[in-house]
Amino acid sequence: MKKKFFLTITALLLSVVMMAKGGTFEAGKGTFLLNGKPFIVKAAELHYARIPQPYWEHRIKMCKALGMNTICIYIFWNYHEETEGNFNWSGDRNVADFVKLCQKNGMYVIVRPGPYVCAEWEMGGLPWWLLKNKDIQLRTQDPAFLNRVKAFEAEVGKQLAPLTIQNGGPIIMVQVENEYGSYDTNKPYVSEIRDCLRSVGFDKTTLFQCDWSSNFEQNALPDLLWTMNFGTGANVLDQFKKVKQLRPDTPMMCSEYWSGWFDGWGRAHETRPADAMVKGIGTMLENGISFSLYMTHGGTSFGHWAGSNVPGYQPDCTSYDYDAPIDEQGAATPKYYELRELLQKYSDTKLPAVPKALPVVSFPEITLKAVSTPVDEIMAKPAIESQDIQSMEQFNMGYGSIMYTTTMPAVKANSYIRINNVADYAIVCIGKKKIGELYRGSNNENTLLIKEDVAEGEKLSIFVEAMGRINYSKEIKDPKGITKSVEVFAKAGQHEVTYNLKDWKIYLFPAETTYNYEGTFTVSKVGDTYLDMSSWGKGMVFVNGHNIGRFWNVGPQQTLFLPGCWLKKGQNEIKVYDITGPKKPVVSGKTKPVIAELHKEYLPKDGVKITINKKETVQKKTQTAAGNDAAPGAK
Question: Which of 46, 226, 502, 570 is a plausible cystine mate for 635, CB 3.0–4.6 Å?
């Protein structure tokens, strides 16, 4: 036993020493070569941005004990450059420290610096402020985009280029862009990103591009390594047939082998069978194929960082549990142990013991009190005035909520109001009466019936909550608020009149500083817990200044993971911003998550479909725009 322990420690120390001295990693004939010797990459994907910094090393050790030899990470551009030109690489964002922890634990690193990453992350990692330029062309050679990409990648290079294997660090591979074949065909653009990464310090590093077996040829560059992405249940060997034909001697690698899947608000919780996942990885190892398990540990999209999927609008949940082998709290699952058993067979040494799960705690139900001060302060400030409707970005705000107000024309009951385009959840009031709610993810997303007569000059208020920006497809150009116009349709004799509303007053509710409930809770010892938000409506939670994430009673997620490292022994402060209002303003701490309880009945049902006489509508819009008095009250 002592001899085995000694050999294991010796192997680990040798690995660390080899990294420290510098080395090589390259594509050899049919295999990767690490310091000249054949090497199978067994990578665990996890995202430092989804894990509190105090837990980084625990998660790395969990991956090591699973049987992995490499950690794969995305670099989320918008996480590091939240405002243009201001980069943050400290604290939870200190990716260089994360990489050094990987090296300390004998793990190599694969870096995927985008600029686009998808990952069910807000706007696929691209920063919201790019959208202040309405004409910008994302993921192209548009200088407005590419110049900012180059500035970002230069900062990535400063942080991570000194940590490549050639410089004594653990970084063995760097990815160029991300699944670009599912976005477009544009080899010149992909070439620009390749050249950019080489210029910032990754010129000696093995560069690769990932895509699907069905589309990788669209953008495949001859001087890059090609890797495939696919998931549990796929025919593994079929995924590599084409690349094997084109490059018979290249090393094979699955750069994303999907262990599970992500959850979206209003959709059932996703799982994938453990045996199918393990079988696929076994097939890869039997055939000398490297892999990265996406995700090995998903973690949490804290704050406003969860994105949205397509088609339509399918916002992602705060939990990024992903049905991964290591759950959201960092504990090993049955899936973990099944995979560990397989990977032990492909390890020359006994795997390290599985780290103990971090402690969990609970606290009893507490009642929060309603407060109005933050909201009142916002409403007391002078409004922003704009003749035309504008998106949130045009007012220099990326996240949170926005309220648009103007006055109504005189219209009879059974008229309609249409908001062109709601992004993403709107509460519409005329005077003090709510006339309905609109949700971009529903079938009837933009039109409400006005059930009562409205007098000229009555106040129209439209409160819009921005949820995650779309993270996949051409729809990633996803401005928030109201992005086009607001129209009222009414009858005037035999004709249909369209009022295109103007002269807006606008109020901004930033995500990090707006709340309407507060309270305190006490824990006798610090540990991870799950906030039970099942009695609440829709909004965000803050504990001791940390944005824990978004909740919504539609589910499937009904609890929010609260890391113990963000708690204090004794009293803790909690603030909630609930835009629709709770059934009961209570919260408690649970020891187990609830992420599979769906309540579709809470989705908005106010939206309606209407048929508009387009000829009359166009005519009246033209007249209104010219100042025709036939449209009284149109602003």
Answer: 502
Q: How many contiguous H segments (helices) and E segments (strands) does the chain have?
A: 12, 32
- Are the CB atoms for 442 and 436 separated by under 8 Å? no
- Band (612; pLDDT cuts 50, 70, 90): low
pLDDT digits (tens, 9 = 90+) for 32-65: 999 999 999 999 999 999 999 999 999 999 999 9
Separation CA 65–CA 57 (nearest Å): 12
The whole-angstrom separation of Cα 12 and Cα 385 is 63
What does pTM read for this prediction? 0.93
Q: What is the DSSP letter of 600?
A: G
Helix (H, G, I), strand (E, B) or coil at 551: strand
Provide Rg for the chain, Cα atoms.
Answer: 27
Using alpha carbons only, what angle is made at residue 477 by residues 475 and 483, rounded to the nearest 5 degrees? 105
The per-residue DSSP string of 40-88 comes to --EEEE--GGGS-GGGHHHHHHHHHHHT--EEEEE--HHHH-SBTTB--
Q: Are 281 and 291 in contact (CB under 8 A)?
A: yes
Which 8-state DSSP code applies to residue 215?
Answer: T
- 113, 164 Cβ separation under 8 angstroms: no
d(CA 346, CA 428): 60
What is the predicted pLDDT for the residue at 20? Answer: 54
| CA-to-CA dists, residue 449 to 307, 414, 417, 420, angstroms | 30, 6, 7, 15
Distance CA 14, CA 340 (A): 23
Comparing CA positions, the residue from 569, 578, 559 lying closest to residue 517 is: 578
Asked if residue 613 has pLDDT above 80, the reply is no
- Name residue 401's amino acid: S
Q: Say what the pLDDT of residue 544 is.
A: 98
Neighbours of 605 (CB within 10 A): 12
Q: Is 515 exposed, middle or buried (0-12, 13-18, 19+ CB in 10 A)?
A: buried
Bond preceding residue 604 cis, omega within 30 of 0: no
Beta carbons of 554 and 266 less than 8 angstroms apart: yes
* Dist. CA 451–CA 435, nearest whole Å: 8
H-helix or E-strand spanning residue 430: strand 425-430
Q: For residue 591, is pLDDT > 90? A: yes
Active site positions, annotated: 179, 256
Residue 510: burial class (beta carbons within 10 Å; 0-12, 13-18, 19+): middle
CA distance 634 to 179: 47
Sign of the dihedral defined by the CA atoms of residues 380, 384, 387, 390, in that order:
negative
Q: What is the DSSP string of 221-252?
A: -TTSEEEEEEETTS-HHHHTHHHHHH-TTSPP
